[in-house]
Design goal:
Catalytic activity: 3-dehydroshikimate = 3,4-dihydroxybenzoate + H2O
Structural class: alpha/beta
Low-confidence stretches: 624-629
Helix content: 25-40%
Number of helices: 21
CATH topology of the largest domain: TIM Barrel
Radius of gyration: 28 Å
Enzyme class: lyase
Number of domains: 3
Distance between the termini: 52 Å
Mean pLDDT: 94
CATH class of the largest domain: Alpha Beta
Shape: elongated
Largest sheet: 9 strands, mixed
CATH architecture of the largest domain: Alpha-Beta Barrel
Organism: Roseivivax halodurans JCM 10272
Strand content: 15-25%
Keywords: Lyase, Metal-binding
Bound molecules: 3,4-dihydroxybenzoic acid, magnesium ion
Pfam family, one: Glyoxalase_5
């Protein structure tokens, strides 16, 4: 199967687009006429430049307002088409997309359209060119692929085929099963795009809000399953008109597209194994079974401050790395590694960002499969020289300069703590009831949210929630959850649009660091709060007003309210399932810990409390500055 992407999907001038598309691994491009016309160089040169990047031109597009015109416009349209055929000959491509007419003078008529296409097909045949006819969702008379197919069928010409574009079909709510009765060899080309479910004008939606398959809400997989069932064997191409993508990093968008396309086609293959997809086999989405460790980069005094803070939280220094300046802090199933090395990945992270989480270790079904799937989806494996007696733990470069390690039991990698660390002999007496990582919260710029969501949902067996707005006194932060089906791994992705929000300031001050807070679980939040207080822990203070409001929203006993009030514990309940949480004060430029007690059946994150938490953090920041910063 040839993978392809329309040049319109990527930002930059044509050479930059080609660079980015080639680097991401596609086989070809749809050249958007605009990209060719704005380029300073003739068609033969452009064709050469594309082929020099190892790419082929899978499609030339679009050719507009062709069919059903009255004379003399009809003849003019035929002349116009032939000039495009000349350009195509020089570019070196043999397929052109004709989108259904929006011309006010277009007469309509299925047979008239079929006759026009057949007549142009006759001319195209002399040049070895194939015409692909696409129903734009807003076409004047033809706006449904079933009508476009009827036109192509009646044109009955070997050089005239149908172009299917998932946006136009799914955007109009046309059932994908209607594709299954179209012969695969009459489908000239297939374009894919997803889009968020927003109720708006079709043209506007299409030109500004398309996104990569899996990033939106359309059933692109169902569409593609239907296409593959026809026996279609041509290129599968992304055609993404998106305002944000047009203005962002070309390479990153191209890579996201490639990731989405490979993951989609793999899903198609797995859902209907009867219809082959000609792509190398890749491991299935990997089960993510939780956070195995979190690694902080911190040196010198900052490392001491962080260690002292971990001790306050009831962690004990359980081990020292055999060869490196790395400490393992542990409490039950929470492992926090403090890496003070002056070389390697952690040192780079420290130099760039100061104290930060530079590495996330995930517990997965199979570490090898995770890296194999991640590589097939375009992630680079991460490698660092291993010292004597060290395990080679599979890892990849995540997004935004992060590293992600994968630990599994099957390959014995979960022995790393015994193998690489020398026990310090500290006992477990200090523990404060923290059992495991409940969730991680990663902060990013709003623009990067689709990327991160796609990263998690294509690599792991994780699903995404819908996006919600979190109100910060100084702006909106968008929040999206990605989580494994059993809740073993939960990550909230928070997208900041301005630097004035708490999340935005964290990003700005830490140069794009990602994990802003870590939520640790306890089964007895009052006991934990007491144990922490005894160790000198200071919770984020929550104002009286919050508790007065809580009393009006929930039926809580006065005693419970007063215990929550004195421990600064926030409360939420959904359908009888309860969630209690409190926060540490900020450290290291805006990071913080959260302690949660998740009642059975509660699947949220205390979202209704987020604005109060943020306001409290901001208030404290203004009055006292950030402790440990
Ligand atoms: O928005 C458009 O005009 C347009 C053009 C060509 C396409 O293939 C398409 O899907 C949309
Ligand atoms: Mg299209």
């Amino acid at each position: 199967m040839k993978t392809s992407i329309a040049t319109v999907s990527i930002s930059g001038a044509l050479p930059e687009k080609l660079e980015a598309i080639a680097a991401a691994g596609y086989d070809g491009i749809e050249i958007f006429e605009q990209d060719f016309i704005t380029h300073d160089g003739g068609p033969a040169e452009v064709g050469r430049m594309i082929r020099d990047h190892g790419l082929e031109i899978t499609l030339f597009q679009p050719f507009r307002d062709f069919e059903c015109l009255p004379e003399p416009m009809r003849s003019k349209a035929f002349e116009r088409a032939q000039r495009k055929f000349d350009v195509m000959g020089e570019l070196g491509t043999d397929r052109i997309l004709i989108c259904s007419s929006v011309h006010p003078r277009s007469l309509g008529g299925i047979d008239r359209a079929a006759d026009d296409l057949a007549a142009l097909g006759e001319i195209a045949a002399t040049r070895g060119i194939t015409l692909g006819y696409e129903a734009l969702a807003w076409g004047r008379h033809v706006n449904d692929h079933r009508d476009a197919w009827e036109i192509v069928r009646r044109a009955s010409h070997p050089n005239v085929g149908l172009v299917l574009d998932s946006f136009h079909s799914l955007g109009r709510g046309i059932a994908s099963d209607s594709i299954r009765s179209i012969p695969g060899d009459k489908i000239a080309f297939v374009q894919l795009a997803d889009a968020p479910a927003i109720d708006m004008d079709l043209l506007y939606w299409s030109r500004h809000f398309r996104n990569m398959p899996g990033e939106g809400d359309l059933d692109v997989q169902g569409f593609m399953q239907a296409v593959m069932a026809t026996g279609y064997a041509g290129p599968v191409s992304l055609e993404i008109f998106n305002d944000q993508f047009r203005g962002s990093n070309a390479r990153a968008v191209a890579k996201d597209g490639y990731r989405s396309l490979i993951a989609l086609m793999d899903d198609v293959r797995r859902s209907e194994p009867e219809t082959p997809v000609d792509l190398p086999a890749i491991p299935a989405r990997v089960p993510a079974n939780g956070v195995s460790f979190l690694e902080f980069a911190a040196q010198g005094e900052a490392a001491e401050d962080l260690s002292a803070f971990l001790a306050t939280l009831g962690f004990r220094r359980a081990g020292r790395h055999r060869n490196k300046q790395i400490d393992l802090w542990q409490q039950n199933d929470v492992r926090i590694v403090v890496n003070s090395e002056t070389e390697g990945h952690a040192a780079h992270a420290w130099n760039a960002r100061g104290t930060c989480i530079c590495d996330i270790g995930l517990r997965v079904g199979s570490a090898q499969d995770t890296v194999a799937r991640a590589s097939a989806l375009g992630s680079a494996p991460f490698e660092q020289p291993t010292g004597p007696g060290e395990l080679n733990i599979p890892a990849i470069h995540g997004l935004g300069g992060s590293v992600m390690h994968f630990i599994d039991a099957a390959s014995g990698l979960d022995r790393v703590w015994d193998v690489e660390f020398v026990p310090t002999g500290h006992d477990a007496a200090a523990q404060t009831g923290l059992t495991h990582v409940d969730h991680l919260a990663q902060t990013m710029s709003y623009e990067d949210m689709l990327s991160w969501t796609l990263f998690y949902t294509t690599l792991f067996d994780m699903r995404k929630s819908s996006m919600v707005d979190v109100i910060d006194p100084d702006g909106i932060v968008r929040s999206q959850v990605v989580e494994s089906r059993d809740g073993a791994l939960r990550i909230t992705l928070n997208g900041a649009e301005t630097h004035r929000t708490l999340a935005g300031r964290f990003l700005a001050e830490n140069f794009g660091a990602s994990v802003q807070h870590v939520a640790l679980a306890t089964e007895d939040i009052f006991g934990t709060a007491e144990a922490l207080a005894a160790r000198g822990f200071e919770a984020l203070p929550i104002p009286e007003n919050y508790y007065d409001d809580l009393a009006s929203r929930f039926d809580l006993s006065a005693e419970l309210l007063s215990r929550m009030r004195s421990a600064n514990i926030l409360y939420d309940s959904v359908d009888g399932s309860e969630f209690l949480q409190f926060y540490s004060r900020s450290f290291a430029g805006g990071m913080f810990f959260e302690i949660v007690q998740r009642g059975p059946g509660y699947t949220g994150f205390g979202g209704p409390n987020a604005p109060f938490r943020i306001a409290a953090q901001k208030r404290l920041g203004r009055h006292k500055g950030m402790p440990l910063a």
